[in-house]
Design a protein that fits this description.
Oligomer: single chain
CATH class of one domain: Mainly Beta
Strand content: 15-25%
Shape: globular
Number of helices: 19
Number of strands: 39
Radius of gyration: 26 Å
Keywords: Glycosidase, Hydrolase
Helix content: 25-40%
GO molecular function, one term: carbohydrate binding
Largest sheet: 9 strands, antiparallel
Organism: Coralloluteibacterium stylophorae
Strand order of the largest sheet: 8-9-10-11-19-15-14-13-17
Pfam family, one: Glyco_hydro_92
EC number: 3.2.1.-
């Protein structure tokens, strides 16, 4: 069978066994180790501690590998975000006395004094895709977690002879502070189903989350507690004020305790569904997605789902690299997450309930991060229907938006307005340019232009009038100008494809706005005032919130014009100037403490910060200057220093899969520097062999010859046996199936990719493409 023909993935079980959810749970990775399925609505995971929002950065995922106690298991988490929220519907199994507060911890996360939290040891933990287990030392309880798309399933094995309880804490939150919970409710329905809700004021204000919960055995007793006051005053009779007599309770600080007779050796199962719509919606999800109680079958189904998803890429590499890559692939498949009930209803950014028509609504879009590599990767490893769902979710959210624009950073359907740019635009554009079915391109273009022309957003009024964002009116103006210009170029690509030439011409002109903020005297992109002058004084090393740049400095941001790197080279004065500046960035002697005041700048190699997205394309820029071998050198430097198979294996926030997607692409030997161009810049491979099992049923293989520590340069590249004339691979070439072959050698090949016509796409050199 030829490599271009369809074939089943041969290594799905191998892929599953190499994905390690513990990678990134320490340091700045901010991943969680708990149970979820690909793009699922449930992320059921342990929370070790929560902190006041001003101190919550390190606990953005709820769990840190460094901690030594667990407060409970909640059902919603972000994977690798730089901001915290969620931690909804937390349960804690208890054997013995019940406390209603989690208690305190010391600096190492150990339990101090009384409280319901429990100590634990890592040698009792098991973390696999779709399954997590741990022994709670204070209680002797074995807790196991698994999930499907809308339901989390717990299995608790209690020690015989001790009272068994399950505590529900609706006050618990990640990104915690007094007053976050605006209101909450718990009710026990006549059939024993426990339902409830809470509304929170966190990252997304006014977020409503509903739940439904059932036990595999009826509780022998229960208590519903409002911890705001010694005696809850909201009940009409003294009997109703008895926590054991209540069937419903409302307030801002609720807890519920469910008691069970001695379980002996019989585990207790708890299943929890969530909904952004209503309690009845959560009950419907529970009934539709998990009518039964088979924990092992649910775990097996989660394993199958992950095995099939990870089997989209077959990898032959060293054990460490294989673990890094399959874990990275695992992390790329957790967001955007499903945010729709089984009946098709979902909550939109207008906080109203809508019904999906012909697609599944997803949310949790960290777009400033993920447009760069995550979404381009998903077009290669996910079915077209899934990628169409992502795009259609963005378009639907725009149509529900009070402002009529696409999401910026959304979760559970709501907008946070976090980060800059209108980066849903390149996600939509890249999918359309790649011909993904199921997207109304005309409707999409309308959504993109509406976002790009909403003057009140982020200095866009000045940007449209002046050609740059004015720093005397808007912070981080240099970064915003550069990012808007790239987004505009992707709009022009779609408009040109649809025959909307007037729109295309307008946005092609706007895509050149990066030139307006590039200072040829200093060689940096700089912020301009509304009068056209550059802001003074200027310090290229300065980084910080409220500066000219977003989460970076002039070194990290000045060379972000992926739509026209050839134009940048012209402004700088030639190839040599760009190469010298890139070398100065990577080779600089920088004290990491100089960035300590900016949380997200990490993974430093000189002034290159791999732990943050603005640097992610920079190693590939040498290719645009005709020196691919320099890219090959830098990629080795980055891969070897920034990723390893352990809890601290990610040097920065994974940012819902962007850090991981960068590694997957780079290890395969190519990277999408300019999403929307349908080109991938060739770097160098870090695998002996890999096969992409493509959405269209074809297979695309990457093979290497002589790959080892001594042979780190690309000597030659062929596609289906023919030499590649350019230092790029096109999307069409990949989707056709075939074999990309690298011959590695010890010395750089300084001729391949040198000629101007061999270099990647740029507006200045390929204006009509």
């Amino acid at each position: 069978m030829g490599v271009g023909q369809a074939a089943p993935a041969a290594s799905s079980s191998d892929a599953y066994g190499h994905a390690d959810p513990m990678i990134g749970t320490s340091g700045d990775g901010h991943t969680f180790p708990g149970a979820t399925v690909p793009f699922g609505m449930i992320q059921l995971s342990p929370d070790t501690r929560t902190r006041h929002f001003k101190e919550s950065y390190d606990w953005a995922a709820g769990y840190r590998h460094d901690d030594r106690s667990i407060a409970g298991f909640s059902h919603t988490h972000f994977s690798g975000s730089g901001h915290s929220d969620l931690g909804d519907v937390m349960l804690m199994p208890i054997a013995g006395d019940v406390h209603l507060r989690p208690g305190e911890v010391d600096d190492e996360g150990r339990k101090v004094g009384e409280g319901y939290r429990s100590g634990f040891r890592h040698d009792t933990e098991t973390a696999e895709p779709g399954y997590y287990a741990v022994t709670l030392d204070d209680y002797g309880v074995r807790a196991e977690l698994t999930a499907n798309r809308r339901v989390g399933l717990h299995r608790y094995t209690f020690p015989a002879g001790r009272p068994a309880h399950v505590l529900l804490d609706l006050r618990h939150s990640i990104y915690d502070y007094e007053g976050k919970v605006l209101w909450s409710r718990v009710r026990i329905r006549p059939d024993g189903t426990v339902t409830g809700m809470r509304e929170t004021r966190g990252w997304a204000p006014g977020r409503q989350l509903y739940f439904a919960m059932r036990f595999s055995a009826p509780p022998s007793a229960h208590r519903l507690e409002n911890r705001e006051t010694p005696e809850y005053k909201g009940f009409a009779t003294p009997a109703a004020r008895d926590p054991a007599a209540r069937a419903q309770i409302e307030g801002r600080d609720l807890a519920a305790v469910f008691d069970f007779a001695d379980r002996g050796d019989e585990p207790l199962l708890v299943k929890v569904a969530i909904s952004t719509v209503s309690e009845d919606g959560a009950v419907g999800n529970l009934d539709a997605d998990m009518p039964g109680w088979d924990f092992d079958a649910t775990r097996a189904a989660a394993r199958t789902a992950w095995s099939e998803a990870l089997g989209a890429v077959e990898i032959d590499a060293s054990e460490a690299m294989k673990t890094n890559l399959y874990t990275a692939l695992y992390h790329t498949m957790q967001a955007p997450s499903l945010a729709m009930d089984a009946d098709g209803r979902y909550r939109g950014p207008d906080n109203a309930v809508h019904r999906a028509d012909g697609f599944e609504f997803h949310s949790t879009f960290s777009l400033w991060d993920t447009y760069r590599a995550l979404h381009p990767l998903l077009t290669l490893v996910q079915p077209e229907e899934q990628n169409a769902d992502f795009v259609n979710s963005l378009i639907a959210a725009r149509e529900h938006s009070p402002y009529g624009i696409l999401p910026v950073w959304s979760f559970h359907g709501l907008e946070t307005w976090c980060m800059i740019g209108y980066h849903a635009v390149p996600v939509v554009a890249d999918a359309i340019m790649k011909g993904i079915d199921g997207i109304d391109a005309g409707r999409a273009l309308e959504a993109m232009t509406a976002s790009a022309e909403y003057a009140p957003y982020g200095g866009l009024g000045d940007y449209m009038k002046l050609g740059w964002v004015a720093i005397d009116r808007e912070p981080e103006a240099a970064s915003k100008t550069l990012e808007y210009a790239f987004d505009d170029w992707t709009i022009s690509r779609v408009a040109r494809r649809l025959g909307e030439d007037a729109i295309a011409a307008r946005y092609e002109q706007r895509a050149q706005n990066y030139r307006n903020v590039f200072d040829t005297a200093t060689g940096f992109a700089r912020a301009k005032n509304s009068d056209g002058s550059f802001r003074e004084p200027f310090d290229p090393d300065k980084a910080g919130y409220g500066s000219d740049y977003t989460e970076g400095n002039a070194w990290q941001y000045s060379y972000y014009m992926p739509q026209d790197v050839a134009g940048l080279i012209g402004l700088m004065g030639g190839d040599r100037k760009l190469v010298d500046r890139l070398d100065a960035i990577f080779d600089a002697e920088v004290d990491p403490e100089s960035f300590a005041h900016v949380e997200d700048i990490s993974g430093l190699i000189g002034n290159y910060a791999h732990g943050n997205e603005p640097s992610h394309h920079m190693a590939y820029l040498y290719v645009y200057a005709g020196q691919p071998w320099r890219t090959q050198e830098r990629l080795k430097q980055i891969v070897q220093s920034q990723y390893h198979p352990g809890p601290e294996g990610l040097v920065g926030n994974d940012d819902l899969g962007q850090m991981s997607a960068w590694l997957v692409f780079t290890a395969l030997g190519f990277y999408p520097v300019a999403p929307g161009s349908n080109e991938y810049v060739i770097g160098r491979p870090f695998v002996e062999r890999a096969v992409l099992n493509l959405p269209n049923g074809r297979r695309f293989a990457i093979e290497t010859e002589n790959l080892d520590e001594a042979n780190t340069y690309v000597g030659a590249v062929t596609l289906d046996g023919e030499p590649l004339a350019r230092s790029v691979l096109t999307h069409a070439q990949i989707m056709a199936g075939g074999t990309l072959r690298f011959r590695m050698q010890a010395e750089p090949n300084t001729e391949w990719g040198r000629a101007p016509e061999a270099r990647p796409f740029s507006m200045s050199t390929y204006p009509a493409r």
